[in-house]
Write a structure and sequence with these properties.
Shape: elongated
Structural class: alpha+beta
Oligomer: single chain
Strand content: 15-25%
Number of helices: 5
Distance between the termini: 73 Å
Number of strands: 4
């Protein structure tokens, strides 16, 4: 039966080289491929980030203040349904939208703020989803009282 022999002379020779020559030897013996892969991935991530920043700068945002009536007897299930309904704004992006136009799914921010001792509920969302937020809240008996601020990034 033939036997398999492994020759470790390459690794022994590497161990005898000074450190700078060791790095050069590893690079020339195929380490360049790893460097190339890391560079390509880094440039790809920079490209996607720049496209997303460009798309994000084009979005307009608004902050809505909401008032919940004192006699509102909604259960936590209503809040769950609100969040479920707003998650419908997320879409499946194709490769062109995601990597060329830099499009990303919207974000909604729900905040509790105390101003002069009064608790206010604020929603920060993209301006194009304002109608979605208002109709969802109105369906559950919550009124959007005012638009606090509209701004772009």
């Amino acid at each position: 039966m033939p036997s398999i022999q492994i020759n470790f002379d390459y690794f022994v020779q590497l161990g005898t080289l000074p450190f700078p020559l060791l790095l050069v030897r590893i690079f020339l013996d195929g380490g360049w491929a790893l460097v190339l892969i890391v560079l390509i991935q880094g440039f790809w991530l920079l490209w996607v980030q720049s496209r997303q920043e460009k798309y994000g700068a084009s979005l307009q945002y608004t902050v809505l203040a909401i008032d919940i009536p004192r006699n509102n007897e909604q259960t936590p299930k209503a809040a769950e349904q609100i969040f479920t309904h707003l998650s419908g704004a997320n879409t499946n992006l194709d490769l062109y939208e995601k990597y060329w136009t830099g499009k990303f799914n919207p974000s909604f921010s729900f905040e509790l703020v105390s101003i002069e001792g009064y608790v206010h509920y604020l929603i920060h969302c993209a301006k194009k989803y304002r109608d979605l937020v208002e109709s969802t809240l109105a369906h559950h008996g919550v009124l959007v009282t005012r638009n606090i601020r509209e701004f772009g990034r």
